[in-house]
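User: Assemble these into one structure.

Assistant: Restating your components, then the assembled model:
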Amino acid sequence: MAYGFNTRALRVPHDPLTGSVVPPIHQTSTYVQDAVGTLRGGYEYSRVANPTRTALQDQLASLEGAAHAYAFPSGLSATDVLLRAVVRPGGRVLLPDDVYGGTYRLLDKVHAGTGIGYAVVNQRDLDAVAAAVAQAPAGSALWLETPTNPMMRVADIAAIAELAAGHGVAVLVDSTMASPYLQQPLALGATAVLHSSTKYLAGHSDVLGGVVATNDDALAEQLGFLANAVGAAPGPMDAWLISRGVKTLGVRMDRHCANARAVAQMLLDHPRVERVHYLGLPDDPGHELAARQMRNFGGMVSFRPAGGAQAAANVAKSTELFTLAESLGGVESLLCVPAQMTHASAQGTELAPPDDLVRLSVGIEDADDLLADLDRALG
Ligand SMILES: *Cc1c(COP(=O)(O)O)cnc(C)c1O
């Protein structure tokens, strides 16, 4: 019988040597060989593999229902290796229209020089996706980010995977905002799922990391090869911190979702707020699809205060519990103005978020305190 999500999140191997319940941090770069080429347990050099990282990868693979998972030093490092593994020169990456700024910059400023192109597609429009897929050169990929950051848009993973399958186009899903607890892209037909584990997976704003999981054996082999070849190896301490965070992912996400829902409802009712983006609101354009595709609606809320960019800047400097900082998914509430912060690299492009948008990463504090803090800051 398969264990449930929260049980699997806690299942890490005890140390066979000492019985230590929590796997140790193998803070080593290299491993003794008993004779030339005779390795103990297959470990040779920590760029290739490290037991602390292996334990994390097994834990993450289990949570995604994947045969393979690879851990990376950051979400963007994972994105870079995944794109190298899947997209061929001459191919293009079909991006959503509010893709994470760093993903856009990677394609626009780094991969463009290697012959990998990109195009922006409205992924809420399945006809547009079908047309883009039909015209995509060999070696192309669809890059989904769902929900998106910061506009909270959703793409229909199952429908898009079905469209793409007929054309041999890989479907890569950045599922960072949902975490494996809220959404399982591989079960919906995605080729690979990626997370910035910096966010909900680690969950405590104290470490950077990334992960890619897949059931495609050939892709997994290529990911493992490239991770070693380009040196995209996370350190054991970072792997250990992420593994510890993952154990409480389910309980944290339940609280993030409940608090975000309360915040979204309060903002919706607030006279000094013009627009609220939260998938849990029945009127949100993505609500119905999110209800089908996700377990719950997540911990991110964005909104546009009355008074434009100046009002957004005022809110940003007036909260006490929502700390003005980039990043998301930690236990403490954070706030940012994406146009000038996380998404500055998309400024002046069709991917730029509205300049008066405030993004909240709603933490696990007491909801009443968060509501009062926002109410005070809105004035
Ligand atoms: C943060 C983030 C990334 C990049 O991850 P890093 O760990 O910062 O490199 C990618 N995608 C999304 C949706 C993110 O929020």
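The chain has two domains: 5-246, 249-378.
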